[in-house]
Amino acid sequence: MPELPEVETVVRDLRPLLVGRTVEAMWAGEQKLRRPWKVMWPRKLVGTRVSEINRRGKWIIISLTSKARGRPPAGFLLVHLGMTGQFTVMPSADPIKDHTHFLFFLDNRTNLQYRDPRRFGSVEWFPPNTDVEKHLGEKLGPEPFGLPAQPFRDAVRASKRTLKAILLDQSVVAGVGNIYADESLHRAKLHPETRGADLTDAGCDRLRKAIEVVLTRAIDGRGSTIRDYVGGSGLRGGFQNEFAVYGRGGEGCPTCGAEVQVLRVAGRSSHFCPACQPR
DNA sequence: CTGTAATCCTGCGAGC
DNA sequence: TGCTCGCAGGATTACA
Question: Is the CB of A86 under 7 A from strand C?
């Protein structure tokens, strides 16, 4: 579900609700997430305080600090929302929904909760001396904002894969998923099956800028809710109403009116306008 | 190197 | 209604 704009919205929502709060108690369910996690949690996270929450690609990084000397070590929580993850702060009095996998009870009668019906997400704890940015950076490409032109051209043209596959590859650019890959390709007027190696300088530059514009607008719209997604305070997104092609197969292209087509590319359904995005 | 399919899961809409 | 089928925002792995 969540791509960069959704994750960014969650982080922005959660920041004022979480930073400075102390974890007073915690609960974790029995079901496995994508990676083994519960056993890694020192119970001692109780008593720690949230000092920061940040995003890198589609990952959420929560920094926990010890509240006082002699208290247990804190560290970091690395969270990925997978397809259906929801990460919210809610009043403790609210009922707990199905598929909730952990709760952090905070010091102001609220709790941080992770809910994920399909359990494709993950939650991992790392010790205080971990360089989380570096750890993520080993597999993640750069953030898609303010990218310099030449390295992006080089990265795209180094591959003979389709543009769709390249955009979904988190090691090229971090944060783009199926929705925003299709929307970016439409904005750049590039066919999803075009080969990276075949792009001109101008094509690479259009694509780079299109990604940035699309993601920025999606963040402004608080992300896209197709089914499950909610932000950190439980609010749905709004950008789904501005899709040019995603989920609009058979409907008219907003630019030229031609019928939006759907193809399977890189194993994912890919929506594009055959007139605006010729091969 | 590329592409494809399967895998991890639950839920929902389409079609019969 | 109720059933089956296919598909869904992600990421990894095995295999051709």
Answer: no
Of residues 95 to 114 in chain A, which lie within 7 A of strand C by their beta carbon?
none
Considering its fold, how many domains does chain A have in total? 2
Q: pTM of the predicted model, to two decimals?
A: 0.96
pLDDT digit string, tens, across residues A62-107: 999 987 665 656 899 999 999 999 999 999 999 999 999 999 999 9
Q: Are A226 and A214 in contact (CB under 8 A)?
A: no
Domain range for A235 is 149-272
End-to-end CA distance of chain A: 28
A82 CB and strand C closer than 7 A: yes
In a domain, A277, yes or no: no
pLDDT in tens, A99-146: 999 999 999 999 999 999 999 999 999 989 999 999 999 999 999 999
For residue A55, the domain's CATH number is 3.20.190.10
Strand C nucleotides with an atom less than 7 Å from a protein beta carbon: 7-12
Side chain identity at A136, as an amino acid letter?
Answer: L
